[in-house]
Specification:
CATH superfamily of the largest domain: FAD/NAD(P)-binding domain
Helix content: 25-40%
């Protein structure tokens, strides 16, 4: 095997990969950051950026750059149930004062900002237009990656550690022996940009409609009066009922409750589709001999909340810290890199387990209708909903005796 000229190869320069490369460089590590696209590039997503995301942007010293991006402040979330009940949930005022609001920012702009930040680091080399096909092994250990450049030439690169930040279908994960797709947790999504939708510019909307629930139809305002409009559905539901997410997206805009709001709207982009495996309460391996997985490759997206960017960036930072510790110890074995699994799970485990409570509620429409109807009239329940929007771990309180009593008594 040729000598490894890099400490780390990061395959994928989205939020997870660029953040990981950035923090590795800050630790003095040499990094090769690869991506099959050329930046700036669009990425199909709902575009929401919560405090998980913006806090990391500030930590990376990118707040001024972020402030210059076209974006929309978000101060509330609106939910509707299959039975037609609605609940508008303001974000916690105290948290807005400390951290600012949430924002909706187009991924084309946001990802480019992160990529440029990683590229500026002295020890980071970037290659755009390079498509990673899979990992290279020496025995059981991953020692590099192979792929093709923009001219179709096959090339190989070597490093002490490989990071799979290459999305929900992750070639790194697959060829390293970890399946990135979990069928029962996989969602199929469609998204388009519309201009002229009647909307509240400061509120994101998630509509759990009959025929869509436990997925949802969303309307997220972005910059310049444009809305990110999409639908997310369990892939098993899509396949069982032979649904077309693109077609369903357009059909939903014509439902009676939305038709008037879209009457003067026009679609200003193609309808894009993508799939992603969302996290669960079941712990899953995200590292092995000489490699780790981050972002969508590690199933970091939060179930039902629709948030991927913040959790992806967070996983990238945690991976960078764990990899740096392994390199300092001179040990990049699976046992050593499993410190990343443990560190990541300490953060996302409580969130995923708590969100399981919300997931159960959403999957039972009569109960979901009842809970939302009561929450709209009960300040304590509305306050809990606001807390859940601020910190997913609060979802565990849904089944506490006091919460149930509040629902029953109204």
């Amino acid at each position: 095997m040729p000598s490894a000229p890099y400490d780390v190869i990061v395959s994928g320069a989205g939020p997870a990969g660029s953040t990981c490369a950035f923090f590795l460089a800050k630790a003095g590590r040499s990094v090769l950051l690869l991506d099959r696209a050329t930046f700036p590039r669009d990425k199909i997503c709902a575009d929401n950026k919560s405090w998980i995301c913006t806090d990391l942007v500030k930590e990376m010293g990118l707040w001024n750059a972020f402030q210059r991006l076209p974006k929309q402040e978000i101060h509330a979330m609106l939910f509707s149930t299959p039975g037609g009940h609605q609940l508008r949930v303001p974000l916690e005022t105290a948290k807005i004062k400390r951290h600012g609001p949430h924002y909706d920012v187009r991924r084309k702009l946001f990802d480019h900002m992160l990529f440029k930040a990683a590229k500026k680091q002295r020890t980071v080399r970037t290659m755009e237009g390079f498509s990673v096909q899979g990992v290279i092994r020496e025995g059981r250990r991953v020692v590099g990656v192979k792929g093709t450049d923009g001219r179709g030439n096959l090339e190989s690169f070597f490093a002490a550690v490989v990071v799979g930040a290459d999305g929900s279908q992750s070639p790194v994960a697959r060829t390293a022996g970890l399946e990135p797709v979990v069928p029962e947790r996989h969602a199929s999504n469609a998204r388009a940009y519309f201009k002229g939708v009647v909307h509240d510019a400061y509120t994101v909307e998630l509509h759990y409609l009959a025929g869509v629930n436990p997925g949802y139809f969303w309307i997220f305002p972005v910059d310049g009066g444009v809305c990110n409009v999409g639908v997310g559905l369990p892939t098993a539901h899509v396949r069982k009922n032979r649904l077309d997410p693109k077609k369903m997206l357009l059909e939903l805009t014509n439902l009676p409750q939305f038709k008037g709001r879209f009457a003067k709207a026009r679609r200003i982009s193609d309808i894009g589709v993508w799939g992603v495996t969302v996290g669960s309460s079941k712990k899953k391996a995200v590292s092995g001999e000489g490699f780790v997985l981050v972002g969508d490759a590690a199933n970091a997206a939060v179930t039902f909340a629709g948030e991927g960017c913040g959790p992806a960036m967070r996983s990238g930072k945690i991976a960078a810290e764990s990899i740096d510790a392994a390199l300092r110890a001179g040990d990049v074995s699976a046992r050593s890199l499993h410190r990343y699994d443990a560190a990541l799970w300490r953060v996302i485990g409580p969130e995923n387990k708590a969100m399981g409570s919300l997931e159960f509620l959403i999957k039972n429409p009569p109960l979901f209708d009842f809970a939302v109807k009561r929450s709209a009239k009960n300040p304590k329940l509305a306050e809990l909903a606001s807390k859940i929007a601020s910190d997913y771990r609060h979802a565990a309180q849904l089944w506490e005796p006091g919460t149930i009593l509040s629902m029953l008594l109204g």
